[in-house]
Design brief:
Length: 245
């Protein structure tokens, strides 16, 4: 007699049943995302995306995050010229947005809710390393098509993490994401050095965004700069690069 658990047809049918049926084995709001459905979402030209050039730099006294300000439909039509693509997540941390706008907004809302719950229960905020782990775990819980940069500063150091939908979490001195990534990296490789202060890192970050804006059609319309320290997060918008460079 065959063992049903080793029967490939049985396993396939059971997997389909579990994925489609509400309850502890499936989503109450429909089937779980699959690689095929995620690829179809990514190919949908009507999905609102930020296109984007985003960068993060670690400095001696904090972190600098920078992004452009353009959102597009499928990378072809400019749908908004003043999108804020960097958001504060707690008093000493911020995160950039690159990819699906809806996915990024859902991720930010969930992350802030988890931070508030932790603070309410423990009476303190998450350390930056723990915050990056929480964020990568959220990606594994519900796949979203975004590739953010998380930057923060606490008593243990100044951190820049790049994250992706697989849940990967990579720390580096500087990083870039989005469609303008190749152009931003070229500038960062040339001008970044590890003894930059926050104020010195700001024009470097802005020039990296400018490199993306000049060559990537999905990036443009100015720059957002976030200066992150152990005390606070300061986010400013600049329509002209000569205001900051």
């Amino acid at each position: 007699m065959r063992d049903p658990l080793q029967d490939s047809e049985f396993s396939r049918n059971a997997s389909r049943f579990a994925a489609d049926r509400p309850g502890i084995y499936g989503s109450e709001f429909g089937p779980m995302p699959t690689p095929d459905t995620m690829d179809a979402q990514a190919a949908d030209t009507q999905t609102l995306k930020t296109g984007t050039t985003t960068v993060g730099l670690s400095a001696t006294d904090g972190v600098v995050l920078a992004t452009d300000q353009r959102a597009s439909l499928g990378g072809q039509i400019v749908s908004n010229k003043n999108v804020q693509k960097v958001e504060q997540v707690q008093y000493n941390a911020a995160m950039t947005i690159a990819g699906s706008v809806g996915g990024a907004q859902a991720l930010l809302q969930t992350l802030r809710a988890e931070i508030n719950l932790y603070e309410a229960r423990r009476g303190e905020y998450l350390g930056i390393e723990a915050l990056s782990t929480l964020t990568s775990n959220l990606f594994r819980s519900f796949p979203v098509l975004v590739t953010p940069i998380l930057g923060g500063a606490d008593e243990t150091g100044n951190y820049v993490y790049s994250l992706d939908p697989s849940g990967a979490r990579l720390a580096d001195d500087y990083t870039a994401t989005g469609s303008g990534l190749p152009y931003a990296y070229g500038l960062l490789e040339d001008e970044y050095h590890e003894d930059l202060s926050v104020e010195e890192a700001v024009p470097v970050a802005a020039k990296a965004i400018k490199s993306g804006v000049e060559r990537d059609t999905a990036s443009g319309n100015g720059v957002w700069i976030a200066k992150v320290t152990t005390e606070d997060v300061d986010i400013q918008s600049y329509k002209r690069f000569d205001e900051i460079i």
